């Protein structure tokens, strides 16, 4: 009830303000998704069974614009069907704020955005919204934007704490990164786009019983993309340095993709990614494993999320060679993506012997159908053919078991109203 009152008050306030505004609109998103998981994220261990469930995202978005001011407010509820009794007096998850920011345009070239916001750049490999996950990803940050013609420079800052403290807490802040600073520059030359990124993230830890300290990780690199009528391609190159409780880090990433439109309906592409890792027989203290930080990792390295989606951190790294075949016809879109995974770092078996670096092959099928302008139905099927080396990395037995994943999702995105 309290959350409903807050939303109602916000809506009435913004509608009242909109009588003098240039524009105010509101829209909804209802997105239920069924999933059958049988080896999702990791091969099914012997003796374990598959599972299935339905999750749902419900969002209410308000957008307001007047002169030099823009405001966005997004409420959301994320749930699993059945996580609440039918007679429950209150919602288990409640209603949260996904976005709540205000932007002021000082001029046609200078702006600043303050508050809870999505930070997403380029192909979302380092900074992304993670829209596949029902909760998504947003940051509490201040972003300053300089955007003359064909150029854009974003400089962002964030400082996180658990509460309005009077004195320094005795325990380290572990909810998120403690601080963040970044600069992202983008420019365009005809059909070529170039982006440069420098990112610094600080993570707090307890150095001693009475002292807290912050370790920093730096991610820096560039992203190139090219697109014309038949061809499109992209290339990402990033390095990473860090310090973690006295250990230094040095890692890197390279990814490339090229595609050709064979016809108006059929497109074929191929790509390759290499995320550095550390050999299991490497006794040095240097951290050599690359971390995608805030990337939309579900969109890379297979949809079954075996790598870098809450897992595979500080490991042997990954090589991913893949194809992407897509077919579009009227309201239909079909995509097939086979991946071949290998470990760039050495993997050791139980006898400390080197194992084959082949990790497995995953094949992803997805299909999308546009029911109408604001409603889309999607489905997908994926299967992982895991190797014994992947079994070793995931610490499960019998990776040769069938590992597959099926999902069906419908997204309704109606616009409630627009006032101008």
TL;DR of this structure?
This protein has two helices and 19 strands.
Give a written overview of the molecule:
The chain has 420 residues and is mainly β. The chain is built from two helices and 19 strands. The protein has an 18-stranded antiparallel beta barrel.
The biggest sheet, with number of strands, parallel, antiparallel or mixed sense and barrel status, is: 18 strands, antiparallel, barrel
Oligomer: single chain
Determine the N-to-C terminus distance: 31 Å
Strand content: over 45%
Mean pLDDT: 93
Number of helices: 2
Helix/strand-derived category reads mainly beta
Helix content percent band: under 10%
The topology string of helices and strands comes to HEEEEEEEEEEEEEEEEEHEE
The backbone outline, from C-alpha atoms, is: globular
The counted number of beta strands is 19
Alpha-carbon Rg, integer = 23 Å
**Segments where pLDDT lies below 50 for 5+ residues?**
none
């Amino acid at each position: 009830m309290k959350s409903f009152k807050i939303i109602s008050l916000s809506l009435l306030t913004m509608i009242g303000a909109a009588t003098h505004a240039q524009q105010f609109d509101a829209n909804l998103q209802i997105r239920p998704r069924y999933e059958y998981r049988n080896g999702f994220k990791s091969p099914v261990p012997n003796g374990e069974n598959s599972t299935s469930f339905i999750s749902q995202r419900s969002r209410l978005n308000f957008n307001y614009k007047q002169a030099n001011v823009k405001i966005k407010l997004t409420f959301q509820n994320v749930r699993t069907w059945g996580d609440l009794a039918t007679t429950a007096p209150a919602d288990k998850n409640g209603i949260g704020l996904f976005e709540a920011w205000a932007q002021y345009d000082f001029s046609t070239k200078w702006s600043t955005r303050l508050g809870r916001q999505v930070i997403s750049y380029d192909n979302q490999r380092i900074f992304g919204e993670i829209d596949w996950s029902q909760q998504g990803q947003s940051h509490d940050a201040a972003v300053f934007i300089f955007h003359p013609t064909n150029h854009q420079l974003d400089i962002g800052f964030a400082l996180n704490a658990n509460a309005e403290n009077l004195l320094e807490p005795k325990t380290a802040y572990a909810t998120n990164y403690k601080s963040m600073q970044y600069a992202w520059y983008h420019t365009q030359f005809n059909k070529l786009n170039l982006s440069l990124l420098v990112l610094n993230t600080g993570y707090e830890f307890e150095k001693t019983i009475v002292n807290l300290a912050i370790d920093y990780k730096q991610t820096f690199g560039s992203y190139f993309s090219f697109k014309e009528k038949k061809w499109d391609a992209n290339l990402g190159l990033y390095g990473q340095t860090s310090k973690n409780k006295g250990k230094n880090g040095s890692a890197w990433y390279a990814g490339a993709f090229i595609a050709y439109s064979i016809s108006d309906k059929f497109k074929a592409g191929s790509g390759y990614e290499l995320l550095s890792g550390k050999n299991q027989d490497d006794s040095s203290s240097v951290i050599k494993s690359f971390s995608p930080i805030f990337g939309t990792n579900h969109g890379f390295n297979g949809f079954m999320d075996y790598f870098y989606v809450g897992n595979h951190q500080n490991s042997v790294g990954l090589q991913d060679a893949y194809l992407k075949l897509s077919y579009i016809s009227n309201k239909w879109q079909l995509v097939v993506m086979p991946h071949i995974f290998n470990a760039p770092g050495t993997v050791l078996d139980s006898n400390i012997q080197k194992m084959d670096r082949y990790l497995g092959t995953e094949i992803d099928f997805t299909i999308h159908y546009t029911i109408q302008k604001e409603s889309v139905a999607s489905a997908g099927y994926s299967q992982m053919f895991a190797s014994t080396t992947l079994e070793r990395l995931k610490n499960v037995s019998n990776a040769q078991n069938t590992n597959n994943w099926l999902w069906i999702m419908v997204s309704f995105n109606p616009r409630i109203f627009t006032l101008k």
